[in-house]
Amino acid sequence: ADGATGGSVSIRAGNLLQGGAITADGIRGKGGEITVNVTGAIQTQSASLSARGRTAGGTIVVNAATDGGGRLFSSATYLATGAQGGEIKLLGRDIVLLGAPADASGNTGGGTILVGGDFQGKNPAIPNADSTWVNYSTALRADAGTTGCRKARRRPAEALRPSPRRCHSSPRPWKWPSVPSPAAARPSGDP
Known about the structure:
This protein is mainly β. It contains 1 helix and 15 strands; from the N terminus they run βββββββββββββββα. The chain has one helix spanning 182-185, and strands at 8-18, 21-23, 33-43, 48-50, 59-64, 71-74, 77-79, 82-84, 87-92, 94-97, 102-103, 106-109, 112-115, 131-134, 140-141. The strands form 3 sheets. Strands 1, 3, 5, 6, 9, 10, 13 and 14 form an 8-stranded parallel β-sheet that branches. A 5-stranded parallel β-sheet has the order 2-4-7-11-15, with no helix packed on it. A two-stranded parallel sheet has the order 8-12.
């Protein structure tokens, strides 16, 4: 459903096995809408959902919570990028994301990514997951590029430009907390 502005793709099924591309990209305008409502979904590594746009990213919703439904197991790629970031919602009762990158970034403003519900589960319009598993190779990005980060507080002429010391084009890597070995955790004097 690609075009000057992205079109609309809607899929409703019991179970879904996806191994290909679904696109609703906007070549000159906003990205389109992709809506997948199923009771269970498996999306392989070769699967991709793209609602990219030139002016703004579109919307991607994969809802495996339809009809009291079940599981979303995904290694797919989700793209809703544009000048303004788009919106990606990955919903279901049980969600497993294994190497499933989701990008809703934009140069003038970041987008929104929801996995397993909304903030603190307080939005009744968004179903909350019972379990959500996201592995180390899944990257979730809703970054703002040049606009949206903290501005430099210097001379007025420079205040409009982002400070390279305060705005990062890529996130700092997250590190697992160190856990002491069982031998180090034993009190002295124990065998």
